[in-house]
Amino acid sequence: MRNDRFSVEGIHYKENKAVRITIEDGVIQSIEPSTGEVPEIYIAPGLVDLQVNGYMGIDFNSVELTLDEVKKACLYLAEEGVTTFLPTIITNSFENITRLISTISQAREKDELVRGMIPGIHLEGPFLSAEDGPRGAHDLWNIQPPDWGFFQTLNDSVHGLIKIITLSPEWANASDFIEKAVAHGVLVSIGHTAATSMQIAEAVKAGARLSTHLGNGAHVMLPRHPNYLWDQLAEETLAATVICDGFHLPSSVLKVIEKVKGDGMLIISDSVALAGLSPGDYKTAVGGDVTLTEERKLHLKDEPKLLAGSAQSILWGVNTLTSMRITSLEKAIDKASILPAKLLNLPQKEGLQVGAPADLIFYHKKNGRLELVSTMKLGDTAPVPTNQ
Questions:
Q1: Computed from CA positions of residues 227, 88, 150, 131, in that sequence, does the dihedral angle turn out positive or negative?
Q2: Rounded CA separation 330/373 (Å)
Q3: What CATH number was assigned to the domain covering residues 46-275+310-349?
């Protein structure tokens, strides 16, 4: 965090007016109309990604994950406009999950930037559907019913760092688990589910507030109605995250979710470790042999129709949603910044306001798209990561 007083100038991303923003000790102190010549650079809140499995070859689900890799991932993501994100740990054994969340926790304790960029962890599993389709790439061997003792022991080990848990409410004890999680300040999200309409309604009544990557992690074929996609769309208190990489969901589905959810539709990357790397063939622990195309589509090798994860950052998702003409660029930025921050009640929810953290992105507009110039975290520009 930068501990001095300085100002930056640019064009407010929403008001489209030149402003001068004064920052002190990493906090916005004032926002005033600019009286001088201002460069054609727009200023917006930094991006907040609620689901990051990995980036630039760094895998948050590899038991070999190191403290240094967590720091590098932060730096790489900052280059994509991300100022806040939740590393996402997927279904695994209790021992491996413990090891992974401990590494992330230790990295936060060691480094101020990591601590500032990672306010918590998203645990996606192991309380998911065991059915093929909804389970996705999650390991069947480690899928299990919701277990409060299992979860509480994990979360206590990192002093309450788990902020989101994705589960399927199809298990008999799901509602009881959800109530306990909510009482302990954990946001419960429905995902990778084959739940019935009643089970989803009960989960919402118990306190579930989010749907994880709605439209994905589902059966290939579903009943026309009812089904768990319609049910989650119809629940007015459920927000929904979506993967806007141009491959996971067609524009028609994204358009419907936006129309139904409005500000409750949030962009995530759900990026895997291959995101940000060069196109080519790779071998992964989960998908096996995969191909990353020039278009940034990640699929099983020799099976282009079967996706192997998301290989884009949340910045890509912002531009995809805009290029599909589903929202304006300004609304797309909100869906990837202040709106997810509001869901978790993070300080970043204030966006460009006096008293808010100086988590900012600076960018040019080109054909309605965002071309990032630089990223600021708590008034400081993160250094470029090295491979040393």
A1: positive
A2: 17
A3: 3.20.20.140
180 DSSP β-pair partners: none
DSSP code at position 235: -
**Which region among 238-247, 284-293, 315-324, 360-369 has the lowest average model confidence (pLDDT)?**
284-293
In this prediction, residue 388 has a pLDDT band, given cuts at 50, 70 and 90, of very low
**Gap between the Cα atoms of 292 and 286, Å rounded:** 15
Query: How far apart are the C-alpha atoms of 361 and 214, rounded to whole Å?
Result: 27
Q: Please compute, for residue 61, the number of CA atoms within 13 A of its CA located in the half-sphere on the CB side.
A: 26
pTM value is 0.96
pLDDT at position 215 over 50: yes
For range 217-224, the mean pLDDT: 93
- Of 62, 136, 124, 55, nearest in space to 91 by CA: 124
Phi and psi angles of residue 183, each rounded to the nearest 5 degrees, phi first: -60, -25
What mean pLDDT value characterizes the chain? 94
Collapsing DSSP to helix, strand or coil, 370 comes out as strand
Residues in the chain: 388
Does the CA dihedral 135-280-373-323 come out positive or negative? Answer: negative
Q: How far apart are CA 275 and CA 54, in angstroms?
A: 7
Q: Model confidence at 173, in pLDDT bands (50, 70, 90)?
A: very high
For residues 161 and 155, is the Cβ–Cβ distance under 8 A? yes
Please report which helix (H) or strand (E) contains residue 117, including its range. Answer: helix 112-117
